[in-house]
Amino acid sequence: MTTQTTATKTVAAPAPNTPSGLIGIPAHLGRALATGGSVLAVVSTFLAWTWTAAFPGDLTFYGYPGGLQVLVLVGGALATLFCLASYGVKGLGWLTPAGADAAVKYAVLGTFATAWYTVVSISVELGGVVNLEPGGYIVAAATLIALIGALALPFERPEPDPIDPEASGWEQFTHDAAHTMAVLRAAFASGSPRPVRTLPSYAEILIIVAVLAVALVVFTYGIGTEYDELFVGFLITAGFGFGALNRSGLIAHASQISARHQNITVCGAFIAAALFPFTQTDDQYATLGVYILIFATVALGLNIVVGLAGLLDLGYVAFLGVGAYAAALVSGSPSSPFGVHFPFWAAVLVGAIASLVFGVLIGAPTLRLRGDYLAIVTLGFGEIFRIAVNNTDGTSGPDITNGSNGIASIPDLNILGFDLGVAHDIGGFTIGRFANYFFLMLLITAVVVLVFRRSGDSRIGRAWVAIREDETAALAMGINGFRVKLIAFAVGATLAGLAGTVQAHVTYTVTPEQYLFAGTTPPNSAFLLAAVVLGGMGTIAGPLIGAALLFLIPNKLQFLGDYQLLAFGLALVLLMRFRPEGLIPNRRRQLEFHEEADAPTVLSKTGA
Q1: Which portions of this protein are annotated as coiled-coil regions (predicted)?
Q2: What is the pTM of this model?
């Protein structure tokens, strides 16, 4: 009798590096959940989320999204597009040149955060979830389902590092925590975007115009948010939305296209900024605009000193004060002991030259120092300036600056018969006082950007970079380090003084308390340095965007009261932890912080 045996079939175990998601459900089911949840979130914005108009934004209407519903609608629409692109829908491939999954995760997470923030705010402010209408429950469930589906999308898991079998419990814990963080980073990472194909010049210019138009709409919406809940929701949506666009590769493609037309991009950016006052119905937000430009211009001047030359200056706001005081003393203020009233061009020259002189006087004896020692000396200069103008009141010292009362009643500028202090009608639009100064400050910012670009690409700019990277090696190559650093200090001081001349007329009064090392409101030296580091040292757009964020966000977070600086500081710490090179980094610095990144074929120009 013959016995027939059947071999046992063994199921092969999955390979250790088999792509899988953070949540153990099939990838196709997760993608379907993410897509369906995103679509349902969009639909829910057309339903009522609460029954009463007591919650800001009036979310009681059907068929008409309002307030925070608009932000959820934008986030849900973006997530839906990325989900459809992940299915390979024809005509949507251009949305994800670096892959769709990471972009889906960011977009879905942003929509979930905004929706749940809104639902929780309604429940807390109105006294419980009973105040939610069906739309509120639907959006909460839809975004949660979409998030679960997005986290199930597969990714390549990194292999854990080996660990000593005899490691202590704490070492085991830190090892596991590091591996968990590596897995999370890999889950939200994307591949390298494919190179953007060359388009006709007119098509690329149209793309640049569209990007600038979107940027203007986003900035106008953010600066015009009318209540605290809406601004917090805007920050969530904008942050995750930018992350999604970045992971999809669209930001990289836009950067490549704009790099081919740098002059057109810069001119277009200034034209878009000039259109901002025409989007406002009054002068309220033009006030924020002009202060942001003053802050950004000074930060760009500091970027020459810190970003290009690598000199840590902790008293830079003093040069802004020198320019402001110098212009105020010769602009016809009744508080000025000189009793003169120079025209605008002469006051600008006085302010810029005064800052230049102070920059040379301070830099000449101190720039032979390096690192922390130079930082301490510049910090001392900033405090000496503030104390000096506080004491030159006729009692503790000569009567020049009127002491703590400052130079008051500074008259508005009058340029070629155009009074910047009164409203003017232009093309049916009423341009108020602050809008007038906004245009003037925009012109000065353009001059500063031009100086930065030309100097950064010049021979002296290359010398600054060499000094920043390795001063000893630069000196060995024949670069006169002291002369090069003194030029950087003088140019940066002059640009700060130029902005100070306009600040004096905008604020009507200059006082010593405006020029502190650190305070709750910019500009001060700490905020200026943070703007440069946050935006990206050595670039043009970085300090401009960093200054705008550092001025706008504290202004909008005043509802936090005593916790404002705490929340703001925590946000900066997290940003520096996960993106130390800044929001818009110079390619060289990005490679310094991320050695595993692919090296570019051609390194970008300094400041470009």
Answers
A1: none
A2: 0.80
